From TrEMBL:
GO annotation, cellular component aspect: alpha DNA polymerase:primase complex
Keywords assigned: 4Fe-4S, DNA replication, DNA-binding, Iron, Iron-sulfur, Metal-binding, Primosome
Stored Pfam families: DNA_primase_lrg, DNA_primase_lrg_N
Protein name: DNA primase large subunit
GO biological process: DNA replication initiation; DNA replication, synthesis of primer
InterPro entries: DNA_primase_C (IPR058560), DNA_primase_lsu_euk (IPR016558), DNA_primase_lsu_euk/arc (IPR007238)
Length: 432
């Protein structure tokens, strides 16, 4: 399937900040869908990262990613509005699967909304609220008694208030961010939002499966078997590097290790044929070929959709890997969660001798259970020549081990390109 058709009615008049009440209804290429969804995910990850580090979601780094992927303009193009709505809609579907993912999505989308809301002018805010027509009323405070009560708290001359039934905004009532009069909560529109945002998560019926989204992490190029050794040391995320090393040492991996690593290898472009050779080479150092073929070969073919229900399985995401439990004799899982502090410190100090501050930061993040942020920092530790000035989530994209890998490959391509250009410039200078 190359195109997805959204069937419900359209809402065409959005501009500046879109806020659809009905799902988008245009056809869209699968590849574009994945691109939109991934870019919005990068923004949400950046917001999450900022919050975990105690920064405001409105920090410079976050605003840079928002401006890059989901800009707010007075005259938004049709394409920008489409991107905003579709990316939101598809993530809304993808993150509707569990209570935990719903909460994650809602929390970061709310922060994103606040950031983008803050980018609007007062007029744009009012026209936005009018356009989406939530039944609110704007008014200026005229009543003398009220004016006296509110004097000093807000600028009464330059602000117009919003009036809604108070039961619609319990969060704001609890936080004393409204004043209540005659059954209505009255507040400045700048601080309006949460209850409405929750409505975005309602009504999921025709689901787009997570695997469709995850398929966008598949590498578009192929990987040769002979390149796995150097690639694992250079560009694999640490969880996969660990599985690779353990397999080479033990000539065996248990079920979850085989699943985690096997699907990752599939995702980076290792063919089924090469995958069978790779696993067989290692396992048959401990068992005969017949045992391997009957006990393990089937599962490898199964992962590639060649056995059983013929499902095209996708590589595990970080959140799935982080939540896998493991025993001390197993090597799967996220190393920032499963490896003991002392062993992790030893590994990091070995690879990051010249970056002791970053090493400490990673250890701290890992101890505080911010595993994916620790991994983003690890990516920077391993790719020290990064000079694009891109925000960290754009570079590392560690919502998924395969995006860690893809971004590493891109990094080395950039480095190669830079040194090629440098040589050309040098040659040209020498010839003059
Ligand atoms: Fe692997 Fe993700 Fe953990 Fe990094 S954060 S080690 S990519 S599971």
């Amino acid at each position: 399937m190359n195109k997805v058709e959204f069937t419900p009615k359209s809402n065409s008049q959005e501009n500046v900040l879109s806020f659809y009440k009905e799902p988008p209804n245009q056809d869209i290429e699968m590849s574009l869908l994945g691109k939109y969804a991934n870019e919005r995910l990068q923004v949400l990850r950046e917001i999450e990262g900022a919050k975990l580090q105690g920064l405001k979601p409105t920090s410079k780094e976050v605003m840079k990613v928002i401006t890059k992927h989901l800009p707010i303009r007075s005259q938004a193009t049709k394409k920008e509005v489409e991107k905003d709505q579709i990316s939101h809609f598809i993530l809304r579907l993808a993150f509707s699967q569990t209570e935990e993912s719903r909460r994650w999505f809602l929390s970061n989308e709310t922060s994103l909304f606040k950031c983008r809301w803050g980018m609007l002018s007062s007029n744009e805010r009012q026209s936005f609220l009018k356009r989406i027509n939530f039944g609110h009323k704007f008014f200026k405070i005229k009543n003398e008694k009220l004016r006296e009560e509110l004097e000093g708290f807000v600028d009464l001359e330059n602000n117009r208030f919003c009036k809604v039934p108070f039961e619609d905004v319990p969060d704001m009532v609890a936080m004393k961010r409204v004043f209540i009069s005659e059954g209505f909560a009255k507040f400045l529109p700048q601080i309006w939002q949460d209850k409405r945002m929750k409505k975005l998560l309602d009504g999921l019926k025709d689901s787009y499966s997570q695997s469709e989204l995850a398929s966008s992490y598949f590498s578009t190029s192929k990987v040769n078997l002979k390149d796995l050794v150097w690639l694992s040391a250079r560009s694999f995320p640490p969880c996969m590097e660990r599985l690779h090393t353990s397999l080479k040492q033990q000539h065996h991996l248990r079920h979850w290790g085989r699943m985690q690593y096997g699907l990752f290898l599939k995702g980076i472009g290792l063919s089924l044929e090469d995958s069978l050779i790779f696993w067989k080479n290692e396992f048959t150092k401990k068992m005969n070929t017949k045992t391997f073929d009957t006990e393990y070969g089937y599962n490898i073919r199964h992962n590639y959709g060649k056995e059983g229900k013929c499902t095209n399985y996708t590589p595990y995401s970080c959140s799935k890997i982080i939540n896998l439990s493991s025993s001390p004799s197993e090597f799967h899982g996220c190393i920032f969660r499963t490896v003991k502090h002392e062993s992790l410190a030893l590994k990091l100090e070995t690879v990051g001798q010249d970056q002791p501050e970053r090493v400490q930061k990673i250890l701290q993040l890992s101890q505080n259970k911010h595993f994916q942020i620790a991994c983003q920092q690890y990516w920077l530790l391993r790719h020290p020549k990064e000079t694009t000035g891109e925000p960290i989530s754009t570079l590392t994209g560690t919502i998924h081990p395969n995006s860690y890998y893809n971004n590493s490959i891109e990094y080395y391509k950039r480095i190669q390109e830079q040194s090629k250009n440098k040589k050309i410039t040098q040659n040209q200078t020498n010839q003059k």
